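Single Protein Entry

Contents — chain, fold
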Amino acid sequence: MYDYLKGHLVSKQINSYRGSHIVLDVNNIGYLIHTGKRTIEKIAEDEIKVYVSLSHKEDSMSLTGFLTKEERDIFNILQSVSGIGVKLALLILDEFSIAELIDIMIREDFKELSRAKGVGAKVAQKIILELKDKLINWSNVTPVDVADIETTKEVEQEAIIEVQSVLISLGYSANEAKGAIKEVLNYKKDCSKTEDILKYSLEFLSRMA
């Protein structure tokens, strides 16, 4: 129903009976948008664009928002796991950045994931089991043509393909993923690890949005 809302920040609350949230004025309508502490701490301007997710229960509807499309999309993916609702998904994203979370999935490090509040070892294992293939779907990804991307011996083609698979799973096209990876590898010569390439690629794509 909604992709994003752009308007004037009226207020932001980290600790309240409604949970962490902001109120955004869009054309004289005030939207209460639930979000995480990490997002609230990043807000530095009065005019902001918030990517939102609509939650619909039997007796209520609510909006949850983030400053980037990637965070919103990861939030929605987390909730595809049975038993993971809005509150727990927000707690996970408060604890880990996108790059950190995807790196955990790649390494299947359930102990690290269980650091998030409310996530025990069994829940962490369930999240990784159900989400790893969604984030890194090798069978549906066309490998990046790296012929015109300057790489070093330290950067393996496997790492490039792995990053592209994650970006495509988040909704980016193959061309957008390639462009971001190319930008990172051409201008950050010391960037060789999968998680670093992914982190900077997401930052580049966020600036282009």
In short: The radius of gyration is 18 Å. Confidence is low (pLDDT under 50) at residues 138-142. Residues 138-208 form a domain with the Helicase, Ruva Protein; domain 3 fold (CATH 1.10.8.10). The chain has three domains: 4-66, 70-134, 138-208.
